[in-house]
Amino acid sequence: MTNxxxxxxxxxxxxxxxxxxxxxxIIMIVLPLMAxxxxxxxxxxxxxxxxxxxxxxxxxxxxxxxxNLGTAVEPDGAVVVRxxxxxxxxxxxxxxxxxxxxxxxxxxxxxxxHGILIEGTNINTMLVPGYVSDQFLxxxxxxxxxxxxxxxxxxxxxxxxxxxxxxxxxxxxxxxxNGGRLSCVGE
Length: 187
Description:
By secondary structure, this protein is an alpha+beta fold. The protein contains two helices and ten strands; from the N terminus they run αββββββββββα.
């Protein structure tokens, strides 16, 4: 003799299992689709060009010599910041930039992998020896932003900090009239 409750319980269990299998199959289809979409449409794309530089000769010649570091207004009117990360500092350690102006941060490393993270912004990039990193940025308000190294670069890494000082656009233009590189080191 068969128990009618046992038969009904088996049907309920089978329906429940089918529902769970259906949910799991949907999840197994949706998750890869979401990952593919994010990877294709929302990922940060690599730089369109890779620029290399000899890290052993940075301070001797070329774009990253000491006298060429800091912020400058280029002949075409673009504002470009050039910086170097090296154990255990950024050069220059304080970068002066204008508010409400598109900027290009060009940076590289002289020794090991470093990182620039400008707090309060979306700037977070690695500085790899032998490669130049270009970051496009704009600050809407004046103020100071800390700039720690966010890649462990050796003992002493915790003391590797810089600063970005954003000043009024008119004040920056006045300072830039004299030409040369601007920084806020010593201010």
